[in-house]
């Protein structure tokens, strides 16, 4: 009897051992399922406008992978950013704060030590966190990531456009990051493209898949050969980024984790063309926003409710089963992923600060109207310095000198600017006609003014006592004597101001 029992237990153990061995040979997705918490992949395009993606209605631009991402997930049609400037947008996203409360509201100011981030929270609660591509967040944030594959630059003289090591996309280590992650933890990755940031090289470094016939110009850009050439090169960079997104999706599928992985695709600000990037028009702050999560989101869903990039931090923490920080100024939009009737906000707030040139502008956007207040109306609406050094601006300058620009195209040059701007978004989606002085919209104007005043008060958004000197000449995009790389922090600027000093580049020499 004892022998039979021993043989019985031995046979059970042997069967269990065989089953365990066989389980090790199962498909990768079965071995990878170690948690119910979703993996989260945030993909951030650089300087890409929402309507330059095929699924948003562009008939010629080649974005098959983004189109498929939307077909398999949820497409947001009313998504916005808190600002239209690269690093302030990114620090706002990671901190869940409006730019003026990050203490990193100006271009290249780092997010200071002590500011909480959602990545920090994920890492502290069992997530593996990684970043690949463009960084632009400041040194204190580096420790939030278990792995950091930051794109590398080839040095260039101060004020001139630099080039990237590799193919110039900033995406070439995205898949490497996913491959090297530990497979026994839920993961978060911040995949940051450098496409489609200027400069646009016409040297074959980016595959040419578009031509001037594919271009759809917004009405505030002149229809010239140089402008269309610039747009075609910009489209090529979007297409290159799109191909890398396809590689990411395939890698997630190969690892067997695609089903429970949330992919969120956005841009940090709009296209790098006049009247888009660094402005608060929709060309600057409206963003493509696509979410794919096969386990939860119904494929092919369209969401037309308002959402802001300041909502990303609390939402990601909520999806990870964590309580969002009380400091966050955005709202959790996770309920919108399951039910498109859910609304979390009736307006968005956006702001513009120094980006190469001084500015201070604020905007309120509802589904129906946009209100913009230009606090420094004495300054022209100058685009960023890299735009000024590009083909489109040079073409606009020629048209300006010849007197052939229309009223909207002249807005980048005119000063003083209009103090207030009001647009009927439904009837004027390109924001061409300022109706702030139209008596028929007096009630709308009063309402939008009140919304702006209340938001500024609630978020403690105050006009600074001092203006920041321009880093470049507005006419040429070449550096001025104030040019500093890297730019000093807000604390360094404030200390200098208190001491009556102006920070200058120590290497600068007067001509």
Automatic annotation (TrEMBL):
Pfam families: Sulfatase
Keywords of the record: Calcium, Hydrolase, Metal-binding
Entry-linked Gene3D superfamilies: Alkaline Phosphatase, subunit A
Matching InterPro entries: Alkaline_phosphatase_core_sf, Sulfatase, Sulfatase_CS, Sulfatase_N
All residue ranges annotated as the Sulfatase N-terminal domain in the record: 38-321
Molecular function terms from GO: arylsulfatase activity; metal ion binding
UniProt record similarity statement: Belongs to the sulfatase family.
PANTHER family cross-referenced by the UniProt entry: ARYLSULFATASE FAMILY MEMBER (PTHR42693), ENDO-4-O-SULFATASE (PTHR42693:SF53)
Name of the protein in its database record: Sulfatase
